[in-house]
Amino acid sequence: MSEVVKELLAKIAATKSKGKRITIFICVYLAFFLIPFLIMLLIGLLNALLRIHETTNAELFVLLSAVMLCVVGAGIWFTRGSSWAGTARPSKNSTPGSAAQLRAQMLALNDLDLPFTVKEKHNGDLIAQWQIVNAKWADLMQDNGLEKQHTITLRLCEKDSTVRVIEEDRTIAWSTGIATLNWSLEFFRGIVFYQYERGAQFGLIYKDDQWQLGSAYNYRFLDSEMRNPLMHAAIANGWTFRPVLSFSSRRFFG
């Protein structure tokens, strides 16, 4: 029986289809966490209101323990399961390039006239952000109603050829073409279920060892317009592009 379960889990983990992974993620979340939690909560409320059964301390302890188990399990599944469901993977037969090669390719985006930059931090992580202080792009961003500074932090892990990604948003306040970040008003960090599209869809693709701009492309300043070239670079180099909530623990966060 254990071998059958292991084989089933291995097949699920190897699922390539993004739609299937997201479906599995939602079904597991509903079947094992949300629905049982709601049923136990409903039983407890009905029993408290209708006095159907005199609850003993032991039964109350078991019910609360089950509820807490569902909550903790849901939290773990959300961090690990959503990371797995949102991961973009290269083709099965691709050979991973070096981290130095991928890093250089991502930094080479700065050689083009793009509305975002990719910078290297002192710890080696890469960080991509909209150029909200660049006069050329700031007016266009304001005119297009850009309200959030989207930040993508990338950590290249050569051991398993995986780019781990954290995405964050902070609200922007505009004043005569000058943007300021409202650090205290709103901050969001989450996992995105990526819809991977080829770079040409965004007028930008890596070809013949260099980034190339295609036909004229009008930026709408969507998160995907910044994310997609980075994802394309990773996948083209045989690397996995994986969203996480934190870099602190791969075992827990992916």
What order do the helices and strands come in, and which of them pair?
Layout: H1 2-13, H2 18-50, H3 57-85, H4 99-107, E1 116-120, E2 126-130, H5 135-143, E3 148-157, E4 162-175, E5 178-181, E6 187-190, E7 204-207, E8 210-213, H6 223-236, E9 240-243, H7 250-253
Parallel strand pairs: 4-9
Antiparallel strand pairs: 1-2, 2-3, 3-4, 4-5, 4-6, 7-8
Helix pairs in contact: 2-3
Core attributes:
254 residues; alpha+beta; seven-stranded mixed sheet; two-stranded antiparallel ribbon; 7 helices; 9 strands; 43% helix; 21% strand
Write a brief caption for the model.
With 254 residues, this protein is an alpha+beta fold. Helix content is 43%, strand content 21%. It contains seven helices and nine strands.
Your description of this structure?
- This protein is α+β, with helices and mostly antiparallel strands and 254 residues long.
- It folds into two domains: 2-85, no CATH class; 99-253, no CATH class.
- 43% of the residues lie in helices and 21% in strands.
- The strands form two sheets. Strands 1, 2, 3, 4, 5, 6 and 9 form a seven-stranded mixed β-sheet that branches. The chain has a two-stranded antiparallel sheet with strand order 7-8.
- α2 (18-50) packs antiparallel against α3.
